[in-house]
Structure formats: structure tokens, C-alpha cells
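S.,

As promised, the zinc ion run. Input:
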Amino acid sequence: MKIGIDAGHGKDGDPGAIGPCGTKEADITQALALQLGNFILALGQEAFLCDRSLYASERAVQASKEGCEILLSLHCNAGGSQAQGIEAWFAHGNEEGKRLASSILGILISETGAVSRGVKDDADWRPASDPKWTGGMGVLRYFSGPAVLLEFLFISNPVEEKLLASPDFQQKCAHAIALGTLDFINSWRKGSGENGGSRSGSAEGDSGEGKDCSGGSPDSGNSPSSPYPDLFPDLSPPLWEGKARKMVLTLHDRGIVTGYEDGTFRPDQPLTRLEAASLIYRALISLGKLPPLE
Ligand SMILES: [Zn+2]
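Predicted complex:
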């Protein structure tokens, strides 16, 4: 079975979160992804590393197109200097994704001794810029099968930052993820005939994680086997020679703008005064000039 691996962040030099000692999330996720790829190959499966020049949601679409049946997205958490632990997110309504998350998290916790923050439904995820967001994580919603987004420890906690940067710890994590994935594959095959699964229940939507957010709804009712070919197709060339799409996707990845539930942006829709204020507010949050609304 082919397994997609998304080393979170890295697009256009996006470092992701940065720890107090300067460790970059994007460097950790890359190191983890490479080790994970090796373990997956060693366990007799195929591994596909997503192209880091793509946006989060596009990486999910790419993995689907490449024939991946499972997607693992790797990130580090950020928050307070005391926050700790590992959490595993699945797309709302994707029961296989939930089982995959639980299988991986269980082995990760027993192998590393880290604190478990649990398996989480992405319908409960909110980007810092949008406390009312209900569209989940794009990297999970745009994938056509079971997908999990792992938040490894808190890079903002100096103790956990040091662990994350340790090659030994990275190796332990990569090994545990590979074993958890294999366990899931074995039970999945048993449950659905020989070749890999019923692939049910992946809601489409949008967004990424932390900074890679945006617009879809868990209930938008798209077929799991047909993820949106691209986010915001209505912004494709000739509109501004394609620059419009690039601009909006960049803002989208930073959590400043969101799209509609069907994956469109609808560039000609008017903006209300309240929406304009919200947009300005989110941009200022992104610049660190204002705190997120409680
Ligand atoms: Zn991240």
C-alpha cells in the first residue's frame, strides 16, 4: 500500500512554529518524514513524500492523485512554554481516519512516554485567526482516504523543543508512526477484503493546520473519491494571469481568508462592512499586532 507523508510547512521557506531556542517546525517535520519514509519501506509498504512547494490542501490532493491510500501529515504543536504532549487529528466523519489516528497515537505514547493529548476531531479545530471556523483541516479534508495530522510535542516548550530536535527521539517517533500505520492497515484489510479498504467517509473541505487553514464544511457532501481537483478553481487563469489564485492561496495558508464550503472562492461576491473588519482583524493577528478573539 502506498502511504503519503506530508512534512508540514516548508512552502516558500515557511518555517512553521519556531521554538525558544530557534528550532524550526519545518526542519523537524522534514527530518521525521524522511525517517518515517524509511521505516515504511522497511515494513514492506510504499512511501510517497508530498511536494513541499504545494499548499497544505494541495498536498492532500497530490497524494490522492499519486494513488496514496493513507496520508500522514506531520507537525509540531505550539502554545505556551509549559504545554506538552502529542495529539492526533482526523477529518470529521472519517471513521477510518479516526482509527488510524488512534492506532498511531497509542504506539507513539507507549514508545516515547510522551503525554497523550488524545485523538481529536477536526470539526473542533480553529485557526488562531478565526474562532468561528468549522471547516476543519484542509490537509485532512482534501485527502480521499484515512488521513491523520500529528502534532508532535510543543516546540514552544523548551524541554519538548530539545526532544524534538534530538535524532533519537525523531527516530523513535518515526518508528512508532510506521508501526501504528501498519497495525491499522492490517485491521483495515481484514475489515474490508484484501486490498486496502472501503475508503469511506473522508469529508472534503479545506484548510491545513495552525497556519494552513481555510474553507470547507464537514457536511458539504462531496464524494470521498473525488477531492476538489484544486482549491479555488474559480481563481484560475486567466484571472490576473493566475496571480489572483496565488495571492488568495497565500492569504488562505496564513488563515486570513477562507473560501466557501464547496471549495470555491467566488471572487465577485461583495464584502459586507463586518466581513471587511474581520479581514483586517485577521491580517493584524497574522502580523502579531492583535490577539485572537476569545
Ligand atoms: Zn504546523
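The first helix runs from residue 25 to 42. Residues 8-9, 16, 25, 75, 209-210 surround zinc ion (CB under 6 Å).

- D.
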